[in-house]
Design brief:
The structure holds two protein chains of two kinds. Chain A is an all-beta fold. Chain A has strands spanning 3-5, 10-14, 19-21, 24-26, 32-38, 45-49, 60-61, 72-74, 83-90, 98-99, 103-108. In chain A, the strands form three sheets. In chain A, strands 2, 5, 6, 9, 10 and 11 form a six-stranded mixed β-sheet that branches. In chain A, strands 3-8-7 form a three-stranded antiparallel β-sheet, with no helix packed on it. Chain B contains no helices and eleven strands. In chain B, the strands form two sheets. In chain B, strands 2, 4, 5, 6, 9, 10 and 11 form a seven-stranded mixed β-sheet that branches. In chain B, strands 1-3-8-7 form a four-stranded antiparallel β-sheet, with no helix packed on it. The chains are: A mainly beta, B mainly beta. Chains A and B meet through strand 6 of A and strand 5 and strand 9 of B.
Chain lengths: 109, 113
């Protein structure tokens, strides 16, 4: 079955500390993977996608097909990173997205 | 810049009322989606549409229906609202080709009393 798992509902770290939000997926094909972010009182928006291999707001995510993971990382957390983060998977040739349950990230000052 | 708008930011309805939530996108996207967002459950797909007058059930279609008469507009209908439909409703759209990125509206917080 196709599934995206975010094992942490809540992650709290201090400002300046490294951040890693975990995402594991279950899918046999070649998925397209995304991280979306929702800041307080703002709409859900794309943070980054694995095919772009880019760094957005200091965040990076590497697709590890062996471990079927797509963890989101940032070396030094900032208070403005506090938000809800969702990992999502797009199966081959399919415009739907399969969503993880989300992780609430809180950056403590 | 893609714009997805939703008709209401907050809505309070009584049990048994018929509720209409409307979504409009201005990017000529083929695909449109309705989700509900609940804490701890993430986003759950209610219905989606890949073309005008076409609709497909998502994971939780019970108690909902949809209408897509025009490409830019996708409506979610709660035929008889119930308290367990109190939630945040998100509309999204995406292109029918290429990257599958979805663009979201601001959401409608619906409370059914």
């Amino acid at each position: 079955a196709q599934r995206v798992t975010q094992p942490e509902k809540l992650l709290s770290v201090f400002k300046g500390a490294p951040v890693e939000l975990k995402c594991n997926y279950s899918y046999s094909g070649s998925p397209e993977l995304f991280w979306y972010v929702q800041y307080s009182r703002q709409r859900l928006q794309l943070l980054l996608r694995h095919i772009s291999r880019e760094s957005i707001k200091g965040f990076t995510a590497d697709l590890n097909k062996g471990e079927t993971s797509f963890h989101l990382k940032k070396p030094f957390a900032q208070e403005e990173d506090s938000a809800m983060y969702y990992c999502a998977l797009s199966p081959d040739s399919n415009y739907q997205l399969i969503w993880g349950a989300g992780t609430k990230l809180i950056i403590k000052p | 810049d893609v714009k997805v708008t939703q008709s209401s930011r907050y809505l309070v309805k009584r049990t048994g009322e018929k509720v209409f939530l409307e979504c409009v996108q201005d990017m000529d996207h083929e695909n449109m989606f309705w989700y509900r967002q609940d804490p701890g459950l993430g986003l759950r797909l209610i219905y989606f549409s890949y073309d005008v007058k076409m609709k497909e059930k998502g994971d939780i279609p019970e108690g909902y229906s949809v209408s897509r008469e025009k490409k830019e507009r996708f409506s979610l209908i709660l035929e008889s609202a119930s308290t367990n439909q109190t939630s945040m409703y998100l509309c999204a759209s995406s292109s029918g080709t290429g990257v599958h990125e979805q663009y979201f509206g601001p959401g409608t917080r619906l409370t059914v009393t």
